[in-house]
Specification:
The complex is a heterodimer of chains A (about 110) and B (about 120). Chain A is mainly beta and about 110 residues long. Chain A has strands at about 10-15, 20-25, 30-40, 45-50, 55, 60-65, 70-75, 85-90, 105-110. In chain A, about 0% of the residues lie in helices and about 45% in strands. In chain A, a hairpin with a 5-residue loop joins strand 6 (about 60-65) and strand 7 (about 70-75). Chain A is globular, with a radius of gyration of 13 Å. Chain B has strands at about 5, 10-15, 20-25, 30-35, 45-50, 55, 65-70, 75-80, 90-95, 110, 115. Chain B is mainly beta and about 120 residues long. The chains are: A mainly beta (about 110), B mainly beta (about 120). The interface of A and B includes residues 36, 85 and 87 of A.
């Protein structure tokens, strides 16, 4: 599975959009981009995933560049409860040799009041 | 809430003791995963079950670790002769197999069991 690079930490003002970048320059054609977050002392929470098209759900939007080498997770109106570590993970589809998720160290997003 | 549940949530034990953790996946999820997370790091994969079959094990899963899923529903993770280095959060996740071509199996995590070995 392709490796990802994320900033170690970011700040965001409450009520503003939080834009979390992720680089995955070695991504291959059948690999999906997944985002999870982990609030302190809790299990990771699934946010969203995509292959090549932009995706949106009730939690966030995922923007994937046309060459698929990077993506951005957008939280449209960040709240204090969005303070967490955000993980960007690239993973093969179900037909791949592995089903495991490979986590990096993620981005610590601190939403400021 | 019918999410993944894990018990106990916290476990404190003395070095050398055996411990067992339980994971109950989301109903009808036939795939189950165990991960371990140490302080400041992301979760690391330990093992994966599809129904009752253990299909993949990480090299992190030493001989002191054993995981079972006897009836393809709940799973247990046992650590024998615990060491201080085993102190970590143990996470369980479950997923459905993809049902349509081009879809994926999204993993949903439980709250974890925090183990402290004294």
């Amino acid at each position: 599975d392709a490796k990802t690079t994320q900033p170690t930490s970011m700040d965001c003002a409450e009520g503003r959009a939080a834009n979390l970048p992720c680089n995955h320059s070695t991504i291959s054609g059948n690999e999906y981009v997944y985002w999870y977050r982990q609030i302190h002392s809790q299990g990771p929470q699934y946010i969203i995933h995509g292959l090549k098209n932009n995706e949106t759900n009730e939690m966030a939007s995922l923007i994937i560049t046309e060459d698929r080498k990077s993506s951005t997770l957008i939280l449209p109106h960040a709240t204090l409860r969005d303070t967490a570590v955000y993980y960007c993970i690239v993973r093969r589809n179900y037909g791949g040799a592995t089903n495991k998720l490979i986590f990096g160290t993620g981005t610590l997003l601190a939403v400021q009041p | 809430d019918t999410g993944v549940s894990q018990n106990p949530r916290h476990k404190i034990t003395k070095r050398g003791q055996n411990v067992t953790f339980r994971c109950d996946p989301i109903s009808e999820h036939n795939r189950l995963y165990w991960y371990r997370q140490t302080l400041g790091q992301g979760p690391e994969f330990l093992t994966y079950f599809q129904n009752e079959a253990q299909l993949e094990k990480s090299r992190l899963l030493s001989d002191r670790f054993s995981a079972e899923r006897p009836k393809g529903s709940f799973s247990t993770l046992e650590i024998q002769r615990t060491e201080q280095g085993d102190s970590a959060m143990y996470l369980c996740a479950s997923s459905l197999p993809p049902r349509l071509a081009g879809t994926t199996d999204t993993q949903y995590f439980g709250p974890g069991t925090r183990l402290t070995v004294l």
